[in-house]
Description:
Distance between the termini: 182 Å
Number of helices: 5
Amino acid sequence: MANNYLEPVSNHFPHIDDDSFLKNTQKAKAKKLNTNPFEEKYDDDDDMSTQSRQAYIEKRRQIEERTLDSSKISLGLLYETEEVGNATAVELTKQREQLEKTSLQLDEINVTLRTSQRHLTGLKSLFGGLKNYLSGNRVQPTRSPNTPANSSAIEEEVQTSSAELYDNQPVSRIRNVGSTSHHQQTQQQHNFESCLESNLKEMCDNLSRLKCLANNLGTEIESQNDLLDNMNYKVEDVDLKISKQSKQMNLLLKK
């Protein structure tokens, strides 16, 4: 036993060559690095953060696309509404022209009926004087104070009344609505904020034009309603005059 202590120190440990020692050292270091729990946790957190960020970006992109599509659809509906309003304004303008023409014709008929009434009054006086002459009463027929006016005076009266009627009618302010309406073409941009702002601005402008167009259409419709009421009075007046003059003609023919 005591002899063992006298042996060299190297004999008490197993012999290990240099290559084996280096391999074992590298394996120990790798094992030590791989067993670090914090390092694995950091790697997992980075992966989760990247996935969340990508999901958020994709969701935001989808929302932006839906928002832009909605704004484009709204713009299309506003454009269609404006086109319908402009077409209605054109039709109302044509209708006003026809109503004004009819109103002028009614004025001419009224003037003609007034002239024929004067002629009937003169005929009544003539027939009355002739009847008195034939019955032996040689009474000088009194001349009717309402002598018929010459043709130039009648034409002047027709022109004056027609001109006054036309001047008194309100002029439509919506005849040039269709020609003043210009739409600005905007280039489609990839930037969401600038494209959406442009669409919203165009929608505001379109709504302003539609509001102005609606006000003008309302004013024009009210004006044409007044014109129709005035024409109704004229038609009733013409009907009464024609009926009255027909009765007078029948009485003259019976005599």
